[in-house]
Amino acid sequence: MAYYTDKVSLIRDSRGNIDLFRLTEGNIIRYHFDRKSLANTEANIATDVHLEYDVYIDQNDIVYLIYQDKAMNLILSIIRNEKVEKVKLTEEHMPEIYYLSMMAINGVPHVFYFTLLSGRDRKYRIYHHYLEKDQWVTNTVDDIRVREVLNPMSICMTDGEILLSYYDYSDSEHIFIRNFNLERKTWEERTQLTDSRFDKLYIDMMYKDNMLHLTYCQYEEGNLQVKYERYRYEKGFISKEGEEDISNYEGPESPTLIYYDNKLWITWVEMDSVLSRFSEDDGETWGPIYLWKESKRSNIVRYKYSSVNEDENILLNYSFGKFSKDLSFVGFGPLDNTEIVPLKKKSLLKLPKDLPRIKI
């Protein structure tokens, strides 16, 4: 298997048609798969793209494509019935942005990203823009520091709120959450979620039925491990309910939360394979680790996913899948082509009690 880190997005419209967007050599290519006619088409939907883009489809089958171009402008393309309307959102060139993300709520686009404030101090700022009465409103969500690398943010929706989780570093690295009240149009105070002082990497978050599910990787003794935490969340009130070590201490990457077939899945990439575990009781207990055999024979990418149709049986923002014309996902569902990987017990380095003393 080869794991590709290309930025690839999938959207599904109300008729079941699929669009795949891929950034390659400064161009965003749109591949359209028509469910009824089985026809495939390809089009160059944006040129002169710098590094960041995102795409989202709303309940009216309107596609929002946002990106930063090489002149450092922020460009929004709105696609309705194959007609493309392109709007430059910025009046002046802006700094390079990181982890650009967007969603549309009741026809209102919401845009999020990081910008660098100080390279020396490793400080970044999180921005949020949304459209109100033909004017863009700009919010500074938070200013953060990073330990070594900038981690992504994770965004999800509840009734009347946007939840944003992200890292900040002072004496140690922690994950925080803030909620944006859509009625009052205000950001509430942030809340610290994680409490361990170990270094961390990656993030994914999911909200379902007043439960907030969080996964990330944590360093210990030079190795990474996938971690899971669950919180009760109701209108800004957060209470931690439990946590679990999910993977072995190997080299996991990009842990991803998926709710499918009444099971909560965590999938990740490790040693050129896709692995996963699932819980049938909302994260209270977890089954064994499964290795998906077809991932060892296929090129794999992590797709970002959005869909018009709300399906109570499946909920995901990302998923691993084959990087080919076959768009099937890998890492959750029927276990026909899997094998169980033993969950190793944590092994700490133990030193003999009778070590000689160092003489100076």
How does this structure look, described?
- The protein is an all-beta fold and about 350 residues long.
- The chain has a single domain (about 1-340), classed as YVTN repeat-like/Quinoprotein amine dehydrogenase (Methylamine Dehydrogenase, Chain H).
- Helices cover about 0% and strands about 60% of the residues.
- The chain is built from 1 helix and 29 strands.
- The chain has one helix spanning about 295; strands at about 1-10, 20-25, 25-35, 40-45, 50-55, 65-70, 75-80, 85-90, 95-105, 110-120, 125-130, 135-145, 155-160, 160-170, 175-180, 185, 190, 200-210, 210-220, 225-235, 235-245, 255-260, 265-270, 275-280, 290, 300-305, 315, 320, 340.
- The strands form 6 sheets. The chain has a 6-stranded mixed sheet with strand order 4-3-2-1-26-28.
- A hairpin with a 2-residue loop joins strand 20 (about 225-235) and strand 21.
- The model is unreliable at about 350-360 (pLDDT under 50).
